[in-house]
Amino acid sequence: MNESINEKKIVNRLSGVGIFGNVLLSAFKLLAGILGHSGAMVSDAVHSLSDVFATLIAWIGVLLAKRKEDTKHPYGHERLECVASLLLGLILAGTGVGIGWSGIHKLFWERGSLEPPTLLPLIAAAVSIVVKEGMFQYTMYYARKLDSAAFKADAWHHRSDAISSVGSFIGIGMAKLGLPIMDPIASLVICVLILKVAFDIIRDALKKMLDTSVSDAFENRLHTFIEAQEGVERVDLLRTRQFGNKVYVDLEIAVESDISLIDAHDISERVHSAVEREFPNVKHVMIHINPKEEGDGEES
User: pTM higher than 0.70 for the full model?
Assistant: First the structure.
């Protein structure tokens, strides 16, 4: 119960920091972009504003995913975090496309009217780099503690914003040196970087929604651990599938054929408890018992 309360506090704190921080930063960058004549900084401000919606979606997704199992959802609600991550990736992709289009429009249709930006957008870019990298580190630290795919995606939103601010800083700096064309070019670079992050987030969310197996390294470690358990003669079958940030395991183990049903059941219970204790991400293990015949060396 206390662990659940602590997790809820962390989720609420992460959401509050993300929303409040991004609203302030977006307003500052938008003002700096408009007053300082920088399209790249305006694009950067839009990116920060999209992070507000991203954090809201992550917050809602995590709270829904942590609801207990019920009669209609006996396997729980963990996949709702994947849905939240997918939405975050799509928002990020849309933001990237919008920023890219703005850069293209300025580059080809407003090229003759481009004017060098002032010092203000350059200062805003520097502030944004420091603040957003700090928000990335803070969010990712707690996202890993919660093992939350949605907040990890939200953290990458912060990191992509920091990277876009680096692009803005370089583009604005070069524009101030007499190359105003570099400002919209910076927007195009920001677009590419954002789309790459969006693609990675969407791919990871889809992978976890499609019952994809875990890594070979994880399965090998699990296989070795199970075979080392008392009473287990061998592992005949081991399958895993990701369910949001949790893992389900289907397992067949061989035990001595001359033991009682009660003893075989006890072995399966010990294996079940040991696996869930040793591997916290494993939500449930379904175990089937096979008899090991004398001299039997093949899987049954």
Answer: no
